[in-house]
Design goal:
This protein has helices at 10-18, 25-60, 63-84, 87-116. The protein is mainly α. The chain has one domain (22-116).
Length: 131
């Protein structure tokens, strides 16, 4: 092996000399992104799942307290309604409130994954991350 004056092997120097130096950065970026896209998508799915689980765990912490307060409120509403209304109407009122409160809680907990889902800059939902 013979060294060139700059200390490179002759074969390496020949490769450098044959290179036109006209690399297309956009093409290189597209190739690199295409190569790592599956790994990036898998990582994004994993991070999305972790964010949803962490948010649900934090949201479930106060749930017993909220349900206890609702039960106390239902008892207070029952006592107030039976003082002024017949028992059947009071039961309907209390049951309607209980169903509305449960539906509200259910909708609030169902909205957590939607609120954490990635969005595009324009505000549209992204389809890239699926659970």
């Amino acid at each position: 092996m013979t060294d060139t004056p700059d200390g490179l092997d002759a074969r390496v120097a020949a490769c450098f000399a044959a290179d036109s130096g006209a690399a297309d950065p956009a093409a290189l970026s597209r190739r690199a992104l295409a190569h790592v896209a599956p790994e990036l998508a898998a990582r994004a799915r994993l991070m999305y799942r972790r964010r949803v689980l962490r948010a649900l765990a934090l949201a479930l912490l106060p749930l017993p307290l909220v349900l206890g307060a609702e039960v106390l409120l239902l008892g207070w509403l029952w006592a107030l309604a039976t003082a002024w209304l017949p028992a059947g109407v009071a039961a309907t009122l209390v049951a309607s409130y209980a169903m509305a409160a449960l539906a509200g809680l259910g909708l609030a907990y169902a909205a957590i994954p939607l609120l954490l889902a990635p969005r595009l800059p324009g505000g549209a939902w992204s389809d890239e991350v699926s659970v």
